[in-house]
């Protein structure tokens, strides 16, 4: 796996993939059957009561401060660095063999040159396959971590929404502002973040 591929893969996970995933997670807690009633359109106390059932979570804050995500990020960064170092070591060793062959080729017999070139060609193919396998392994682990994060957030928000009578949970992100404005009184990011981190702290013990 090349350095560029590794960095791109992790960058996608850390900045794009999880943000999209978080949006899907909180959206899955919505009640698709809920529709505005006549009371909602008419105003008054009943309207305010219904509006207060709609809340939102700031995805940027949640991802920045959710300890579980921080640990996942560190784990994937470490894996990317190790894979990168392994690939660099293999590439350097192969380049040395090629340079050594190029230096000795003029004095080698035709048969020796052919066998050496065939061996180097096989090694080059092996290096390419190793790169592809490393990329596939990283992508598979990334997808697995995405799924785990999705499940953790979704399951908690379903429980939290039910306990507090929320009918709709929205998500906000500065990089993907589907919600253009939301009153701060409707934000539940801190209480969600506190609960998620508390649950994760218990798991780590």
From TrEMBL:
PROSITE patterns: PROKAR_LIPOPROTEIN. Residues 1-23 form the signal peptide. The keyword Signal applies. InterPro entries: Chaperone_Skp, Skp_dom_sf. Keywords: Signal. It comes from the Bacteria. Pfam families: OmpH. Belongs to the Skp family. PANTHER family: CHAPERONE PROTEIN SKP (PTHR35089). This is Periplasmic chaperone for outer membrane proteins Skp. It comes from Parapedobacter defluvii.
């Amino acid at each position: 796996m090349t350095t560029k591929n590794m960095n791109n893969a992790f960058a996608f996970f850390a900045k794009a993939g999880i943000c999209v995933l978080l949006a899907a997670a909180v959206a899955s807690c919505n009640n698709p059957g809920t529709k505005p009633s006549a009371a909602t359109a008419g105003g008054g106390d009943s309207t305010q009561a219904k509006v207060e059932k709609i809340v939102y979570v700031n995805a940027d804050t949640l991802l920045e401060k959710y300890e579980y995500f921080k640990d996942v990020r560190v784990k994937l960064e470490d894996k990317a660095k190790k894979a990168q170092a392994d690939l660099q070591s293999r590439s350097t060793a192969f380049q040395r063999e090629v340079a050594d062959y190029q230096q000795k080729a003029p004095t080698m017999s035709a048969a020796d040159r052919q066998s050496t070139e065939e061996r180097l060609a096989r090694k080059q193919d092996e290096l390419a396959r190793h790169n592809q396998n490393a990329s596939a392994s990283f992508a598979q682990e990334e997808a697995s971590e995405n799924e785990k994060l999705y499940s953790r957030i979704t399951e908690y928000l379903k429980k939290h929404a039910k306990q507090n009578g929320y009918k709709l949970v929205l998500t906000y992100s500065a990089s993907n502002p589907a919600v253009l404005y939301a009153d701060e009184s409707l934000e539940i990011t801190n209480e969600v973040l506190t609960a998620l981190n508390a649950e994760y702290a218990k798991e780590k013990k």
